[in-house]
Amino acid sequence: MTGCCGKKLSVRVRFFAYFRDVFGGKERIVDLDAGTTLAGLLDLIGDSPDRRKELFADGAPASGPGLKPNLVVMINGADLASRGGLSAALHEGDTVAVFPLMGGG
Amino acid sequence: MSGPAYGFFGKILEIDLTAGAVRVLPLDASVVADYIGGRGLATRLFCDTADPAADPLGPENVIAIAVSPLVGTNAPTSARGHMVFKSPLTGVIGTSNSGGGWGFTFKSAGYDALVIKGRSPEPVWIDITPAKVEIHSAAKLWGRDIHETTAELTAGFSAAERPRVLCIGPAGENLVRFADVANDKNRVYGRGGPGAVWGSKNLKAVRVAGREKIQIRDPEKYKSGYDQALYLMRQAPVTKRLLRELGTAGLVELINVIDMLPHRNFQDCTHREEDLERISGETIARTILERAAGCYLCPIACQRHTRIAREGSPDEIGEGPEYETVVLMGPDCGIYDLAAITTANYRCNELGMDTISFGGTVACAMELAEAGVLPKAATDGLDLRFGNASVLEKLAVATAYRKGIGDILAEGSYRLGEKFGRPDLSMSVKKMDIPAYDPRASFTQALGYMTSPSGACHLRGGYAVSLAFFGGSKEIPRFSLLQSPIAIRNMQNTGILQDSLGVCRFTGYAFGSDPWSRMLSGVTGMDFSVARLEEIENRIAALERLFNLAAGAGPADDALPPRFAESGIVVAGEKRTVSREAQEKMRRDYYQVRGWDEEGRPTAALLSSLRLAPLGRRPV
User: Fold this and answer.
1) With an 8 Å Cβ cutoff, are A17 and B571 in contact?
2) A8 min Cα distance to partner chain B (Å)
3) φ, ψ for residue A78, nearest 5 deg
4) Which of A99, A73, A104 is nearest to B250 (CA)?
5) Model confidence pLDDT, tens digit, residues B549-604
6) What is the dihedral of CA B419, B423, B425, B427, to 10 degrees?
7) Which of B447, B354, B454 is nearest to B46 (CA)?
8) What is the DSSP letter of A90?
9) Where are any strands of DSSP class E within B338-441?
10) What CA–CA distances, in Å, run from B2 to B28, B105, B351?
């Protein structure tokens, strides 16, 4: 989940819709250990029961069953699955967008 | 029809405007079994009545409006109607769906469908109640805008008795090719120019009122579908809260996250985040939104009732802007000015014009001007460059009244571009302007635009945007040539079902066919299993295709403008185009998936299995 060796990287996490209320703003710069996966990042930002509820099915940890249905996680504009899913490694300067599935016209 | 009306009254109201004649035709249960209602029924009636070679603005064109057996129940969002006509913008089938409450009230007048033929010698409006159907002179209404007309025709009634109105505004009267028919004041039958068809027939308005009720054959079965639908709508964030909180413009920043938001006539999808923030759903909610509201029987409440403060004049109120309007009249024109977009939107609502085609046409004009091809002399002194927000409202008015440059804009972007030797600068398919999702950011969506029966449309062509947010494990579905044909066929069929049931697209975020199957079977007592529904969807799609072929459309029309093959945009770090080879492959595979031949014609075997006769002959 989290990396080793003391090297750090920072990613930009963007929130949309009511996630801005739940996660305390439009975006955050998050500092991570090198090698942190997407699962590790979500564990980090899911730092309260309300926040975990929006991210994980049944509020389970990232290593558990999985993400909440209708949760969208995009890494640099591509869907999570195409980037490797929860075990996707993050890199310096990545932008991760997190929001409930939105539809429109 | 004798006995209780289980879902439908068995009555089609046919009006011949040339003769000023009204008659009632029977609707047989077998037609309901094969087409349901709404889009399916309207398409069947239209194809039985209209000549595919008709001049869209001539007396031979036909307007068919239908509701479904669910309309008249309390099924969520089930007040919608569907209108079919030959489009003066595209020359192929026009097929448009709209909410509000008119569909529900039309049903309570005691009818299942309305077919309007011919042309009245003088402007008229039609009044429909269970007791009588009357054609009145519209001399006093002609020239008045949609809000005034709707207010006039609904004045003096108590809230419980208030009728509902479809009407056109000056844009329809002036035969603007993308004029709409307004529904319940601010809802619209938006695309393809139905307003111009009404205008060409001298038809100003149709007012409906009544208290006729349908019965439910199997209340328990109906309720099982209803309960499940409502439960699921409370689970999905879109239907539960997102659309109420943010409206469709909540998509603005999200579509940019996936590099799909058009910019400057689809030149690219590159925006500054701070510019998009000025026109996002969040900003609308924070600054100009007065309240959310919903169509009749809808808990989703995506409507935006808004107010704009104007310097030196009174505040303006109205509805919108929606996502499509924000983008096509915004960044696609290089504009990020919410007030300018909103007031121009108010004008489009009052005057009766499709905001997507209007925005796309203005964007085309701006590119023609910047390319030096649209001469300054032709622009009434307006500086038509990308980003000039001050032209939006002025052009909306000029277009609705066909004044000066408005007369050319009223023809739509393709004819505008063609007039100045650059039809390639019209971002359209079959001359209908592409909505606010760049096809280079999703091949599935690209195929949807190519194969939509009505021209480039995200509602009839299939809405593939969710595919970009989620995805599969191996090939990225939104760029999969292999998966796109089946995926978009399925999305189109879902749309056909929803349109034929008279229910809203947004329910699709909460549930699929199963609850509808139970509700529809429960109401009618007829077999509408999910498998039968699929057969009906394929039948309607094939019938639309038959009409379009007879109207002269072919595979060459199922294609994107050159820009999308020749000019790339960066999507998730990779440069993307929709090459001609990719379009060709997807088109060919789509035809196969549909059971059509290499020329896109439904095969004899398919027609036989769907029990569809070729057009022009009586149905089997």
Assistant:
1) no
2) 23
3) -115, 150
4) A104
5) 999 999 999 999 999 999 999 999 999 999 999 999 999 999 999 999 999 999 99
6) 120
7) B454
8) P
9) 428-429, 432-433
10) 11, 22, 43
Strand B113-117 with B11-16, pairing? parallel
Question: E strand or H helix at B183, and its extent?
Answer: strand B181-183
**Residues forming CATH 3.60.9.10 domain(s) in chain B:** 11-208
Domains of chain A by start residue, with CATH: 8-100 (3.10.20.30)
List CB contacts of A3: < 8 A, sequence separation 6 or more: A32, A33, A34, A35, A36
> A68 to chain B nearest CA, in Å?
11
Residue A63 has pLDDT above 70, yes or no: no
Q: How far apart are CA B517 and CA B528, in angstroms?
A: 6
CA dist., res. B523 & res. B291, Å (int): 34
Whole-angstrom distance, CA of residue B22 vs CA of residue B117:
10
Is residue B469 predicted with pLDDT exceeding 90? no
Q: Select the residue of B466, B476, B572 nearest A101 (Cβ to Cβ).
A: B466
Report residue A93's pLDDT band, with 50, 70 and 90 as the boundaries.
Answer: very high
Task: Please report where in the chains the tokens 């080793």 appear, as a residue.
Answer: A4
Question: B375 in contact with A at a CB cutoff of 8 Å?
Answer: no
Tens digit of each residue's pLDDT (9 = 90 or more) over B330-380? 999 999 999 999 999 999 999 999 999 999 999 999 999 999 999 989 998
Regarding beta strands A8-15 and A95-100, do their DSSP bridges make them parallel or antiparallel, or are they unpaired? parallel
- pLDDT score of B615: 85
Residue B213's pLDDT is 97
Q: Which fold has domain B442-509+529-609?
A: 1.10.599
**CA dist., res. A43 & res. B246, Å (int):** 28
CA distances for B415 relative to B71, B320, B445, angstroms: 39, 28, 24
State percent of chain B over pLDDT 70: 98
- In the sheet where B133-137 sits, what is the strand order? B133-137, B124-128, B203-208, B164-167, B181-183, B187-189
- Please indicate whether, in this complex, the C-beta atoms of A102 and B245 are within 8 angstroms of each other: no
List every span in chain B annotated with CATH 1.10.599.10: 442-509+529-609
Write the CATH number of the domain with boundaries B247-433: 1.10.569.10
Supply the pTM of this predicted model: 0.97
Contacts of A86 in chain B (CB under 8 A): none
The answer for B402, left when phi > 0, alpha when psi is -120 to 50, beta otherwise, is left
Exposed/middle/buried for residue B131 (C-beta within 10 Å: 0-12, 13-18, 19+): exposed
Q: Tell me if the bond preceding B515 is cis, omega within 30° of 0.
A: no
Residue A64 to residue B92: CA distance in whole angstroms: 53
Q: Do B476 and A82 touch (CB under 8 A)?
A: yes
Rounded CA-CA distance B98/B554 in Å is 28
Substitution target from A26, A70, A99 for chain B, most B beta carbons within 10 A? A70
How far is residue A82's CA from residue A67's CA, in Å, rounded to a whole number?
15
B353 touches chain A (CB under 8 A): no
| Distances, alpha carbon B429 to alpha carbons B52, B56, B370, in Å | 19, 18, 23
CATH of B11-208, one of 3.60.9.10, 3.40.50.150, 3.90.226.10, 3.40.50.300: 3.60.9.10
**Comma-separated ranges of CATH 1.10.569.10 domains in chain B:** 247-433
